Amino acid sequence: MRIVFCGTPEFALPTLQRLIAEPDFSIETVITQPDRPRGRGHGVSSSPVKDASLDAGIHVFQPEKIKSDSAFEFFKRAAPDAVVIIAYGQIVPARLLDIPRLGWINLHASLLPKYRGAAPINWAIVNGEMRTGLTTMRIDPGMDTGPTLLRWETDIGPGETAPELARRMAAAGPDLMVETLRKFARGEIAPVPQDHSQATPAPMLKKEDGQIDWSQPAPQIYNRIRGLDPWPGAFTTFRRHICHIWGRPETKPDMTQPGTLATASGAIFVACGHGTWLRLDHVQLEGKKRIPVRDWANGARLEPGDSFGR
Predict the structure, then answer these.
(1) What is the DSSP string of 183-243?
(2) What is the mean pLDDT of residues 279-294?
(3) CATH, residue 219
(4) Rg (CA), the chain
(5) CA dihedral for 167, 168, 174, 180, sign (positive or negative)
(6) What's the whole-model pTM score?
(7) What is the count of structural domains for the chain?
(8) pLDDT interval class at 9 (50, 70, 90)
(9) Which end of the chain is less enclosed by CB atoms within 10 A, N or C?
(10) Among candidates 275, 267, 257, which has minimal Cα distance to 217?
């Protein structure tokens, strides 16, 4: 099977590497996002998918826009049997969808139709889901609206962060994609239309998504801490400075004003909504390093009545 692979981040790597290794698949070209400024120094660097492809001796194509005429001409010339697309980062135009014989097969990190969009792993954790998974689908012109093929399901660990869950899901992707491609090519699975009435959104993360509302219950705030790690992170303000925090819920019923800081038995707590508390583990002031909460408290010289959100 002649395949063009579209993908960009590390999440796509395990599946790409598996497809390269399988003798019945031939990766003709890898398409990935153009090299971009990344990291604190904003130096231009290539994507993980590009680096792995070049190491494997595979041709890489990096169109600025996949809707461009040059990308259309590339696909017409390549005429692959299938395009495998995983976290590529651009919407595929309709005129490209019917070029591959088997279509464009996507590995999406949710149990569709739930969590359509750019950040399904993050929003599943933020929203307190206990279960998620992977879905393979044949993409159509909509945003993750195409008919589904196969799925893999897993529990979300009670303390699992977005990067931890993403690594587990990425590792499960190769088996699901290989099974999908082989069975779909043999006519052993048929695309199943999604129930659009059950769809939920998973939009691209924005910095403001990380701002903590201390009137929410502690477990809900904890989900935001886990789901938005490492970016944008969960943050608040302290003495008018941005402050990222990490912690976990504690059973400590009280009706203290949400956001209020308290010390008990050597630990530092912050009051949350519905009489709940969050036990702080680490704090990171804007422009500083992440440090244990006791070190931060000693430097801040906490006073009675101090609170977050001010």
Answers:
(1) HHHTT----B---GGG--B-PPP-GGGGB--TTSBHHHHHHHHHHTTTTT--EEEETTEEE
(2) 96
(3) 3.10.25.10
(4) 23
(5) negative
(6) 0.95
(7) 2
(8) very high
(9) C
(10) 275
